[in-house]
Design goal:
119 residues, mainly alpha, 2 domains
């Protein structure tokens, strides 16, 4: 009986210790996350980070518009012994797809920026 009581008390004490430890960690985390940035500044920061992360996508789309043959063969050139002939339709398709993607991505950013600051 005494052993059972001791084990129960030890388990409860361990549980309480873990709860205290977690709440201390939560308090530290809340102190780190509670900054003095206003909502407008956070929205602007989100948009700036998003734009910086999509710059490589814009670069690839612009590159594939100006050099459609190279972009079509990028990573596949090793499969051919000679330079393959790419049809005019494929080149036109790559150019149109790149142009539409750049315009669409730009429109998405404009809509995103307008909706972020409208709230």
């Amino acid at each position: 009986m005494a052993r059972l009581l001791n084990n129960t008390l030890l388990r409860k004490a361990g549980y309480l210790y873990n709860c205290m430890k977690q709440s201390e960690t939560n308090r530290k985390l809340n102190r780190i996350l509670n900054t003095n940035l206003s909502g407008e500044m956070l929205k602007m920061l989100e948009i700036i980070v998003l734009i910086f992360l999509t710059i490589p996508l814009y670069a690839v789309l612009i590159w594939s518009y100006f050099y459609p043959q190279e972009s079509l063969l990028w990573g596949k050139r090793w499969m051919y012994k000679e330079e393959p002939k790419i049809s005019d339709g494929a080149i036109r398709y790559i150019k149109v797809a790149s142009l539409i993607s750049v315009i669409g991505l730009t429109l998405v950013f404009i809509i995103l920026i307008l909706t972020q600051f409208r709230r």
